[in-house]
Design goal:
By secondary structure, the protein is mostly helical. The chain has 3 domains: 8-56; 63-126, Winged helix-like DNA-binding domain superfamily/Winged helix DNA-binding domain (Arc Repressor Mutant, subunit A), CATH 1.10.10.10; 135-250, Winged helix-like DNA-binding domain superfamily/Winged helix DNA-binding domain (Arc Repressor Mutant, subunit A, Orthogonal Bundle). 57% of the residues lie in helices and 11% in strands. The chain has 12 helices and 10 strands. The protein has helices spanning 8-17, 24-27, 35-48, 62-82, 91-98, 102-114, 136-151, 159-166, 168-176, 191-208, 213-220, 224-236, and strands at 51-53, 59-61, 89-90, 119-121, 124-126, 181-182, 188-189, 211-212, 240-243, 246-249. The strands form 4 sheets. The chain has a 3-stranded antiparallel β-sheet. It has a 3-stranded antiparallel β-sheet with strand order 8-10-9. A hairpin with a 2-residue loop joins strand 4 and strand 5. Helix 1 (8-17) packs across helix 3. The longest helix is centred in the N-terminal third of the chain and has 21 residues, at 62-82. It starts with 7 loop residues before the first helix and ends with a strand.
Length: 250
């Protein structure tokens, strides 16, 4: 509760701490002094470093910044311990743990990353020093699985078989770090094969005006399941568009 006495800056700081992060308009509601005094008080707090403004314009106190970034670091450390094969925590989950709405969370995250407190990549957040370390047995499992993909590049193991080989968490790691690309819930490809097949689709359409699943299947001696999965994936990526049984470029 606000103190009955104190400088405008002290009173404004207490008001800020009661509901941070917040915006200027919300902060100035129900203040016990004129808005002109609030503007000067806020300028004083910002100049003295007792408050800070984030990139989206939201405001929080220095103690609020410390509290939220500490909670962020603690949540990430806990997540890294619980899920050692994951590259980091999904940013939406981190926002939920901090009980922040998307806009102020995005500003807080950007500021924390700018100060080297966290790293965000691919929609996941991690502590700067965190790295995934595989055991020797896990490394052997990865090599064995990728060897299967190299042996049958156009008809590789499906996602279920791959998960049975290395486990769900390790397979998710391989997809997250780009060792494998998930084309559909069941179809995975190596990046090289994905690029090769996708390039063929685009070039074939450019040369012939369209492509059907059978043409892709026959070119790579694969099955219709893999051909259709890739074409539907390219549809979803808005590279191609389906007209009847044929795909054309968007």
């Amino acid at each position: 509760r606000l103190l009955a006495e104190g400088s405008p800056a002290d009173l404004l700081l207490q008001h800020l701490q009661a509901g941070e992060p917040t915006d200027d308009a919300t902060l100035r509601k129900n203040l016990p002094f004129p808005s002109e005094s609030a503007e000067a008080a806020l300028a004083q707090l910002l100049e003295e470093g007792r408050a800070r403004r984030l990139a989206d314009g939201s405001l929080l106190s220095a103690t609020g910044w410390t509290r939220l970034t500490t909670e962020m670091a603690t949540a990430l450390a806990d997540y890294h311990r619980e899920f050692p094969l994951r590259l980091g925590m999904p940013r939406e989950e981190l926002a939920s743990r901090l009980n922040l709405k998307p806009k102020p969370f995005a500003a807080l995250l950007a500021a924390a990353e700018a100060e080297g407190l966290v790293v965000e990549s691919g929609g996941v957040v991690r502590l700067p020093e965190y790295e995934v370390h595989l055991s020797r047995d896990q490394e052997d499992q990865v090599r064995a699985l990728l060897a299967q993909f190299e042996a049958a590049p156009y008809t590789p193991p499906n996602a279920g078989d791959a998960a049975r080989t290395v486990g769900d968490e390790l397979l998710s790691l391989l997809i997250a770090r780009g060792d494998l690309i998930r084309v559909s819930p069941e179809v995975l490809l190596t990046p090289a094969v994905y690029d090769e097949m996708s390039t063929f689709v685009v070039e074939h359409i450019t040369a012939h005006g369209g492509i059907v699943a059978g043409e892709l299947r026959d070119r790579f001696d694969t099955s219709r399941k893999y051909a259709i999965a890739l074409l539907e994936h390219l549809d979803n990526k808005r590279v191609t568009r389906r007209i009847g049984d044929k795909r054309i470029l968007r």
